Amino acid sequence: MIPVTMTPTSSPAISTEEKRRLARTILREAKEEVLNILWDTDPNEYCNERLMLVWLEEDYEYAIRRLGLCRRSESSYLQKLHRIFGQYSEVIPECRKTEHLRSIQRS
C-alpha cells in the first residue's frame, strides 16, 4: 500500500503524465490489497480484515486526490477506485453515488 504521507502533493514539478502513472500505480496497489484481504480472510470470522476495506478505500481516494490531477482525470480514477472496492465495501452504493456528487459540487 502506498502510504498517504509518501504520495506527492500537487506540484508543478511533476508532469501530468507522471501524475497519471502514479494514479495507475495507486489503483494497481488497491486491487492487490483487496485481493489479498479477500483471499486471506474467512468471511464467517467475527472480526476480519474485510472491515478495513472502507478505511483503505478512503486512504487510496485521498492519495489520488493529493496528486492534483485535473477534475476529469481525478473523477475517472476515483470511479475506477470505487469499482474496485464497490461490491466488497460496507458502504451502500446509493450513498456512495450521492457522496461522489457532493464531492464534485464542493470542487
Structure description:
It is a single chain. This protein is an all-alpha fold and 107 residues long. It has one domain (4-106). The protein is 64% helix and 0% strand. Helix 1 (16-40) runs antiparallel to helix 2 (53-66), helix 1 packs parallel to helix 3 and helix 2 (53-66) runs antiparallel to helix 3. The longest helix is centred in the first third of the chain and has 25 residues, at 16-40.
Describe, in short, the structure shown.
By secondary structure, this protein is an all-alpha fold. It has helices at 16-40, 53-66, 71-86, 93-106. The radius of gyration is 14 Å and the shape is elongated.
What are the SSEs and their pairings?
Elements: H1 16-40, H2 53-66, H3 71-86, H4 93-106
Major sheet = none
* Tally of separate domains: 1
Q: Which stretches of 5+ consecutive residues score pLDDT under 50?
A: none
SSE pattern: HHHH
Compute the average pLDDT.
Answer: 78
Shape: elongated
Rg from Cα: 14 Å
Tell me the total number of β-strands.
0
Instruction: Tell me roughly what share of residues is in helical segments.
Output: 55-70%
Q: Give the class from helix and strand content and strand pairing.
A: mainly alpha
The quaternary organization reads as: single chain
Q: Which range does the strand content fall in?
A: under 5%
Cα separation of the termini: 26 Å
